Structure prediction request, 286 residues.
Amino acid sequence: MSGMFMRFPKGRAKALTLSYDDGTEQDIRLIRIMNQNGLKGTFNLNSGRFAPEGTVYPPEEFHRKLSVRQVKEVYTDSGHEVAVHGLTHPFLEKLPESMAMWELLKDRENLENTFRTIVRGMAYPFGTCNDTVVECLKKAGLVYGRTTISSHSFDIPADWFRLQATCHHNDPELMPLVRKFIEEMPAREPWMFYLWGHSFEFETGDNWEVIEEFAAFAGGHEDVWYATNIQIHDYVQAYWRLEFSVDGRQVYNPTVTELFSKKTGRCTAFCRERRRTCKQLFSDNF
Prediction:
């Protein structure tokens, strides 16, 4: 609809999310940093590569995988999403379709049984995919797949199965990008800042200060919605289910999600109530 633009919960124009892969010991410190600054994100796990209980790693090993007991302690009730990363972290596009399906379905099943939740997200191992792998995701009941491509933009994804991040945490443009994201305001389409990486990279690069600086600067802003990957995906999909009359004066929200839109300088909330349109007008504070 001309002149009408999606807004996030409470009328916010910006959303920020993180996505970290492999389920290594360094996630414990990363989650502590995220929680201290109010950030939300998604952790992509290979359930076929969890460490055996009691594993003792040599001092030089940085890729220290967590055990089943540890992943339950670290991610359960953490406020963050867990998502598929392939059962054994293969190049999915190099596998026969049946094997790729097994990698997705078995990883999803294991994670759902471990965390007693429904898992619907995915980060591609090595960030790579092709059309066959994308179709496998859809058949496996997954609704998004993250690549390792950096867009250096804040655009809402056009293709959730080839999801691009804004940037990796080692990108030299990280802080200039997040400063622009925090200090400026979109006039029309909403913005999403999407950061990705592996937490073990902070150890190998001896640069934990990178994520500490990012989190301290990016967190705690009233005009930003801090959400997991799946929360943003589900909100965007719900918004596009709004039904409008031909003249745009009536709107019906068929979902259970309160949805927000901006038009002519005001923010409008559309909520579901007895299957009738419910509209509340808010001043455009964001």
Notes: The mean pLDDT is 93. The CA atoms of residues 47 and 87 lie 5 Å apart. The first helix runs from residue 27 to 37.
